[in-house]
Amino acid sequence: MNLIFLGPPGAGKGTLAGAVSKAYGVPHISTGDIFREAVKAQSALGRKVKDIIDSGALVGDDITIALVKERLSRKDAQGGFILDGFPRTIPQAEALEAIVPIDGAVNFDISDKEVLRRLSGRRVCKGCGRNFHTEFMPPKAENTCDHCGSALFIRDDDRPESITRRLELYREQTAPLAGWYKKKGLLKEIDARPGTERILETFRSLFPGKQK
Length: 212
Ligand code: AP5
Prior knowledge:
Layout: E1 2-6, H1 13-24, E2 28-30, H2 31-40, H3 44-55, H4 61-72, E3 81-84, H5 90-99, E4 104-109, H6 112-121, E5 122-125, E6 131-133, E7 152-153, H7 160-174, H8 176-183, E8 187-191, H9 196-206
Parallel strand pairs: 1-3, 1-4, 2-3, 4-8
Antiparallel strand pairs: 5-6, 5-7
Helix pairs in contact: 1-9, 2-3, 4-5
This protein binds BIS(adenosine)-5'-pentaphosphate.
BIS(adenosine)-5'-pentaphosphate binds at residues 9-15, 30-32, 35, 52-53, 56-59, 64, 85-86, 88, 92, 118, 121-122, 131-133, 136-137, 157, 166, 195-196, 199.
């Protein structure tokens, strides 16, 4: 099962990818997570991309494609994967096509209003990186991760100016990919408004393949 998740920022791609990864036993590969880990580790890549990510702009295609190519060559991705946040541009989609065949592109359908609600309430664990939401998935103790006890923080790109930039870039560069995959007969639309459990049920009916 080689799948990609498409959709606006904050649509819930990462949250569903985590649940699908568990249910189907395939790795969740998020380019955003890889970039954020590089920033946290202050690696050469992290220093290069930090300001780009914080402002809500896109990292260059060359860097991103090379990173995904390397990640997909690893052993754990040979039995399938969920690519979350890649491709985001037509050149990235063309490059992916040359790397590996794709079985489906899942497009998350959600309004801007809901995106803003989800992004403005998102809180992320400093320790293990898990996502919470002040309204929809509140932690048991305020500002503390349920899993590892670390403090929660607001992502720099979840500030209002960065959200606006991310939505603009999504419309210009990423939304056209839905049509690109539709023409290839690979597009599946998913209503991203309900809770994660319900979306996972819909996902299971769209992709009944090998589940744990
Ligand atoms: P990335 O991390 O990919 O950001 P994104 O696409 O903007 O997606 P998000 O992580 O913001 O949202 P999501 O859809 O995963 O939602 P989530 O599940 O967290 O990329 C970050 C940056 O890296 C980019 O801006 C760019 O700079 C760079 N980058 C990455 N990939 C790149 C590429 N290919 N090319 C170039 N640059 C790239 O959910 C959001 C919130 O809602 C959470 O609080 C969650 O708890 C809550 N929630 C989730 N689902 C539900 C639900 N069903 N009901 C209620 N609440 C929910």
